[in-house]
Amino acid sequence: MFNVRYAERTVYRLLPKLLEYQKEIETAAIKTARDVLQETFSLVLYDVTTLYFESFKEYDFQKPGFSKDNKPQQPQIVIGLITTRLGFPVMHEVFEGNTFEGKTMLDIVHRFQERVGNTKPVIVADAGMLSKANMQQLEADGYSYIVGARLASTASSFIDTIHKELPRTDQTSRRFSYSNAVKNASIICEFSEARYKKDKREFDKQIKRARQLLERNESGRRAKFVKKSAEKDKPFIFDNALQAKAEKLLGIKGYVTNIPELEFSSADVVAYYRDLWHVEQAFRMSKSDLKARPIFHYTQDAIRAHMLVCFLALMMGKYLEINTGRSLRQIRDELWQVQEANIHDQRTGEVHSVRMNTDKLANSTLIQLLIPEFPH
Fold it and tell me: Containing domain of residue 215, as a range?
């Protein structure tokens, strides 16, 4: 009815050719961020997500791995994304489904650096990127970083120090040296009343579950505070040491950085890390509003091309969100109001256009942004 014809086979066959334009597309994203959004790239955000396939059969590229979608049995791919502080995407990469997320960061950061020139941004990433090798390499390459800390994995002596020296006052923070693990690194620990209440509820639930399993003589492998025992008549026992260790960290969040306090205060480091919600929101947008799933591809090039299309859509969506102050769903609902139908008169051969009344949209900032010449 709308004179649209779909050549499905042609589209699928030609889709991988889009990869030839990936550099051009990402260069355009960087230029838009710099020239239009006034981005200086002094700081960028990095995170990863996973996309699963509606299949249980592995192929060369999609493989089962740690699933952020809670689909551990299904093959997947891993997506790495760099955004500005406002969440505007400037670069992405696709990895095999069984790739450890900590091994995705360095390659994409180096590729990003080649595109932006001499500017070396502060890299902000979540705790999944935290590894000694990653931090050492970033420092060797001259980067500053802010990464989430896995405090529970640190030494008991270090946890004791935090417990003794960090006041339990809301939003209070302390900086501790972490140079014994990574040169020039510090861990900033912050206590939050809201986080304490949340952690305490989960802590109490885990304690209760562990004791119930032990009372019923059930295997304790599913409970956090249960460990194996050397006694034959009691194969599992309650882990008192782990309980004490976890209790000392209730309400505390850690951040690892190599930026000196004179350059970035502890409050600045925490604030910059919290900007990571922009990347998480971008991933949610791509999975829900932009419908990145399901993926009906098998070859690596086709999968990469599919994600490049999603990256383009995410660029446009975030650009509109930033410039209009509205969510992508609100933008979509408003755009759906702009409709036009072409009616073909088979008797005369004439085509009549029926367009909606556009008067009420004439002053819309969204329409003016998309179509500057939109009639008033």
Answer: 199-245
